[in-house]
């Protein structure tokens, strides 16, 4: 099913670059720290900056608040798991993060079997933007997300890592791990369910 055209991705880092070095991306070091050291403070800083922007991006494109908040968690989970795949030669951190957000949103729309809303349609009433209180709640959820990931069973964590970090299909995971395809799907479903329940219970 064809999708309506996507608006340009937000470019949040255009105004965040260091005044001392206009070519420097101030978030590269944070992503590197997450990738190399699983640095929770670095991830919290990325979450604090990008989560409210991702929420507003999804709301502006017509997602309801519940879906937008789930997409924020999904995108930031991908940032945590895939930090090692970030290539500063290809894009800024902001472009990388919002590309993940756009792709996750399209995936969600495909699963729901409906076309993406056209943000230029005058009949569409945009949802309200995140309030300061909601932005603060998003920041708090960064630690909750990390705790939820850390509490996963090892076999669930492995399939989640392969799915998000290595971007393997279910079939590829099954082949590499020598597991039945049904087992791979079950473990991934259980992992995502655990993360959602953990985030909901601590909200």
From TrEMBL:
Domain called RNA polymerase sigma factor 70 region 4 type: residue spans: 143-195
CDD domains, alphabetized: Sigma70_r4 (cd06171)
Keywords: Sigma factor, Transcription, Transcription regulation
Organism encoding this protein: Azospirillum endophyticum
Protein family: Belongs to the sigma-70 factor family. ECF subfamily.
Keyword Ribosomal protein appears in the UniProt entry: no
Residue intervals of the RNA polymerase sigma-70 region domain: 46-114
Protein name: Sigma-70 family RNA polymerase sigma factor
InterPro entries, alphabetized: RNA_pol_sigma-70-like, RNA_pol_sigma-70_dom, RNA_pol_sigma70_r2, RNA_pol_sigma70_r4_t2, RNA_pol_sigma_r2, RNA_pol_sigma_r3/r4-like, WH-like_DNA-bd_sf
SUPFAM superfamilies referenced in this protein's UniProt entry, alphabetically: Sigma2 domain of RNA polymerase sigma factors (SSF88946), Sigma3 and sigma4 domains of RNA polymerase sigma factors (SSF88659)
Pfam annotation, one family: Sigma70_r4_2
NCBIfam families membership: sigma70-ECF
Taxonomic classification: Bacteria, Pseudomonadati, Pseudomonadota, Alphaproteobacteria, Rhodospirillales
Region (Disordered): 1-24
Start-end of Pro residues biased regions: 1-11
